[in-house]
Every structure is written in C-alpha cells, then in structure tokens.
Amino acid sequence: MAKGSTYRCAECGCEVAKWRGRCPECQAWGTMEERADSRAPIAKVAAGAPSSPARPIADVDIETSRARATGVSELDRVLGGGLVPGVVVLLAGEPGVGKSTLLLEVAYQWAEGRGASGAALYVTGEESAGQVRLRAERTGNVHEAMYLAAESDLSAVFGHVDDVKPGLLIVDSVQTMSSPQAEGAPGGVTQVRAVAAALVALAKDRGLPVVLVGHVTKEGSVAGPRVLEHLVDVVLHFEGDKHSTLRMVRGVKNRFGAADEIGCFELRDDGIEGVPDPSGLFLNRHAEAVPGTAVAVTVEGKRPLLCEVQALVADSALPQPRRAVSGLDSARVSMVLAVLEKRTRNPLGGKDVYTATVGGMKVTEPAVDLAVALAVWSAAYETALSPRLVAIGEVGLAGEVRRVTGVGRRLAEAARLGFTHAFVPPDAGPLPDGIKTMEVASLAEALEVLAAKYR
C-alpha cells in the first residue's frame, strides 16, 4: 500500500484505509480500488460576508416552504402532504415495477392542477420521447403543460430547465445521466455523485421540486454510492410483486414528514391508481373457516392494515424438516416455532412448516408473532380458528405475550371491517368499543383458550 492512499469501493463508494477483498458497506467482492489520498491539511477558514443576515426564527416566512399536493393522494400521504419547494426525492425500485408510470401520473396531475405556470418537465435518459409518449397515451396522461425531453447529458437538462421554467422536474433516471465535469461512465460512483449533487444544488437554488428515479441492486438497496441517499431529502422505495397488481411506495427517509408511511397502488393496463383502503387486499374471505389461518393487524406509519397469516404443517420425509417463509421475517418465524415447541409442548421438530402472508404483503413487525403462532397451531391440529378473530402481540422467548404500540387503533380498524373478537396483550391501554377483547399473558394461555373452545 502506497503511503497516503486509500481504497474505495467501485460499487458504493465506501472508503477504507486498508485493502479488503469484500466491501464492508455493500458486501461486494473484488471492488476495492486504490486511490491516492489527495486530502490537504486542514487550514483555518477566514470569516466572510454572509449571503443573508441571520433573523429570529419567529420572523422566518414559512409560507414559501409549505408542501404542495401532487394530486396523487397516496403519494402525498407518504411525502407528508406533498412536495416542498426545493425538495429532492429519490424513488427507487426494480425494473418494470411501475416507477415511470407512477411519475407520468404525478406529472399529469401537477400540470393539470397548475396550468402553464406550473408546468412539469419529464426528462428521460432510458427511453426515447416517442416511447414515453406512447405510454402516456395508453394511461391517459397527456397534458399541454407537460414537457418531455430525452436527454442523458446534465448540461442539456439544465438548458431545458432554463427554457421551460417548470414547477416540477422529473429525471428518469439518475444512473443514466452524465456530467461533463466528472470522470467515469454514466452510472459509476463518480458520475452518480456529481449528477445528484448538481441536481440538489439546482433544486435548492431555484426552489424547484426534483424527483429522481433510481435503480436498485439485486439485494434491494439503492444502486450507486451511499452518499446518494444522504444528498437527497426523501428516499422512497417502490415495491411490488411482478405477479400481482399491488404496488407499495414505502418511505425510508423523509426530512419533511414521517419516514415509515406507505402508499398503496394498483397497477392496471390503463395506468396506476391509488388504493385508499387496502386492508381488504390482504385478506381472503373464506366461505368456511379454514385451518391454518389467523388474522393480525400491523401498522405501517399511521395506517393500520389487516393481514392474513397462513400456515401449513406436514410430516417431513427429509432428514432436516423444511421451513419456508414468504412475506414474513424468517428469523422471527423460526423463533416463534421454537417457542411454540418448547413452551407449549407442541412437537414440530419432525414436520415441515410453511408460513406466508396473503396478497404479497411483507410484514416484519413483531406484532404478528401471536398470529403466526396461532396459525401454525391451527394447521398442526387441523382446527380452524374463528374467521372473526384477530390476534395482536409480540411473543417473547419465555413464551410471554408483550405489548405493542397502537393497540387501540389496530382494534378500531378490525372492528370497522367486521371482526368481533381479539387476543391482545395485558395492559394494552384504552380499547375501543365494538370488539370483544381477551387479554392473554402468554402463548400457552392463548392456546388453552382456543383448545377449551374447540374441545
């Protein structure tokens, strides 16, 4: 190693002092490249003239920083009310999930709500202008105040901004843009960092909301250097199963609102549409009670959502029984199975156990632990639970049922959808009317209640 040199990952930009075979940040192999350390010694900074005088915080005008609704209500929910002037939003998702379709809808609603003075400029670096126009025709998102440019050079994008003077700028995607002031190929660490920094400076200087489309890696994280997520104000993940029409926009970072909100959409042939009440999408309405199913209530941001957990327990013909998980946290499911076997004397060691959620929903919240345990018990003993029962609670290693946040909101949503009974942890706080609750201190107690009912 040369004196005064460092090693930088070509995938994510992580810098380390010594060479490593595997990047400690993105876990990529063979991507560490040696770079000469050009950092100058820290010098004293002389005081300069401020660009504007400091004012008391009470005298600062906040009207110019109010969020402006995009016209897409589910996206506004995730953003915290809309787009703040000068905000930079990074929307990341897998190829073909519907990012461009959603942003065409945003551009159309923005243009329709503001006319020529609030025009939307859509810059595409991945497709031709004709291809984007065909998609806009198919989805009905064509407006005279929508401007379209097919560019991959950042200086040309700035020229279009000067000519159009838009109220909203959409760049699809940041990995296809290149800056003449930076080295490397488009999509590289240096280029992505330079392009993002220039667009952030443009947004802040002109008070222009900018939406950037980003690619994701095979692990599901945003492609490019990690600094890209630090530069922008809002990071959104656009998720969805290619075999399902359900799409979710999940907030990961938000400087102007909650960072854990979700917005639900349905992708159709003629466009994308928000789903304001998505609870029914994650439930199967069975004509008769079916063994191996239990209903939980999870909270995403401020929105309670009902989800159905399904389980299947079968005799295993393998030396090591199989554990398959879909839509749930596999580590928590394994823990719940161990607690179920050890604390309640339910033999599962020689059986295959399959667990999944309905509707492609992904749940990592511990509040579904009790529902997972009840679904597995129901499948193991071929005993169907009541279709009007919901289970809420985190299961500990000692078999206890722990409190979770927002039990009242969860039960109110369950009661609204017709559920009449609920298992809840002890001391869950004030509970709503319209649903009968049963406090269970442990998993064994919950199973005793169910066994007594079906005995």
Largest sheet, spatial ordering of strands: 6-5-7-8-4-9-10-11-12
The number of E-state strands comes to 21
**Approximately what portion of the residues adopt beta-strand conformation?**
15-25%
Can you tell me the overall shape?
A: globular
Within the CATH hierarchy, at the fold level, what is the topology of the largest domain? Rossmann fold
CATH architecture assignment name of the largest domain: 3-Layer(aba) Sandwich
Count of alpha and pi helical runs = 10
Q: Tell me, what is the CATH class of the largest domain?
A: Alpha Beta
Quote the average pLDDT.
88
Indicate the low-confidence ranges by residue numbers. Answer: none
Structural class by secondary-structure content: alpha/beta
State the major sheet: 9 strands, mixed
- As a percent range, the share of helical residues equals 25-40%
For the record, what is the CATH homologous superfamily label of the largest domain?
P-loop containing nucleotide triphosphate hydrolases
Q: What gap, in angstroms, lies between the N and C termini? A: 73 Å
Our Rg estimate from Cα atoms comes to: 26 Å
Number of domains: 3
Protein name: DNA repair protein RadA
Motif (RadA KNRFG motif): 253-257
Region (Lon-protease-like): 352-455
Family: Belongs to the RecA family. RadA subfamily.
What can you see in these coordinates?
The protein has a nine-stranded mixed sheet, sandwiched between helices. Strands 13-14-16-15 form a four-stranded mixed sheet. Strands 2-1-3 form a three-stranded antiparallel sheet, with no helix packed on it. It has 455 residues and is α/β, with parallel strands linked by helices. The chain has helices at 73-79, 99-114, 129-139, 154-164, 189-206, 227-231, 330-344, 369-380, 407-416, 443-454, and strands spanning 5-9, 15-16, 32-36, 88-93, 120-124, 146-150, 168-172, 210-214, 234-240, 246-254, 262-268, 271-274, 293-300, 303-315, 323-326, 351-357, 389-391, 394-395, 401-402, 421-424, 436-439. The chain contains ten helices and 21 strands. The protein folds into three domains: 5-36; 68-276, P-loop containing nucleotide triphosphate hydrolases (Rossmann fold), CATH 3.40.50; 281-454, Ribosomal Protein S5, domain 2. Helix 7 packs across helix 8 (369-380). The mean pLDDT is 88. Strand 7 (168-172), helix 5 (189-206) and strand 8 form a beta-alpha-beta unit. This is DNA repair protein RadA. Pfam families: AAA_25, ChlI, Zn_ribbon_LapB.
